[in-house]
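Subject: Predicted fold for Aminoglycoside phosphotransferase domain-containing protein, 341 residues

User T.R. writes:
Posting the sequence so we have a shared reference for the thread.
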Amino acid sequence: MNPDNRLSQLNTWLGTLASKWSLDLTTTQPASSDASFRRYFRVLGNKNGLQTSFIVMDAPPATEDTKPFINVSKLLADAKLNVPVVLEKDIEQGFLLLTDLGNQTYLSVLNQQTAPKLYQDANNALIQMQLASKPGLLPEYDKALLTRELDLFPEWYLGKHLQIELDAKQKDDLAKVFDLILQNNLSQAKVIVHRDYHSRNLMVTDQNNPGILDFQDAVYGPITYDLASLYRDAYIEWEEPEQMDWLIRYWDKARKAGLPVQNEFGDFYRDYEWMGLQRHLKVLGIFARLYHRDGKDGYLKDIPLVFKYTRKVAERYIALKPLVQLLDSIEGIQRPDGLTF
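User M.O. replies:
I've generated the structure tokens; pasting them so everyone works from the same file.
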């Protein structure tokens, strides 16, 4: 549907709520958009006698479903996490009125001075979320879903973006690498997985930091996935010693909290790297798809960092040598020296 028609429908819906929440519809303005077809607006109003701002989600029903957002919001709120509260909903039209967690993302304030405290808070919130995990609450991050995500790499990044057609041997090598990655991913303990737990979806808040956004695709899956999202972030890069420090702090606290992390940090770190590799390959495919299918070119600038993560992990493990050879052949990049575990 034409976005202007959607906006007209949205304003009509907000008009039905204006009296209840003292909404000033003249203040409605874009708040953000994301990699989906959802859009967000901010509008001023009144809650509990105090002037405040609200977020309005526009999720076109033809492409988006608001029910997962509503369900996961309640699940995380019950775990005492700081997430937007659904105040009003129109599932049929795809509109939600939400509490506002502000506009200061982690990404906008992260630096060498702020990072230790912000990531400590992010670790604590992640552990809190994972402790609320139970089977059956969310879809399984199963082999079929993990495989569909990996397949985005050859289809969209290699095929569509780079215009590369793999030969039979390359296809076979890539399939074997995918099998190894999946074996690792599926052997990990399962918890609630946000799936995009990174600096653009974590908000700096005065209380119960961080605010957590964009959780509607949450699943029940590998325990290291959100850590790979957080510390091998597509939008900001940290040196490995810094990553290691924050990961050790998470691992130590998670063990003491009773979460099913590996007993040895080396084993845990390997799981983190292999889970991150699955995510990096997927993200390369997603960023390419966002450009070629959806006309969103803003993610192209982030591809080099994700590719750098991919190559670095592939070079570190002898079992992943076929992936390194594939990357060399398709990118023409001289491989740097790397450790092999």
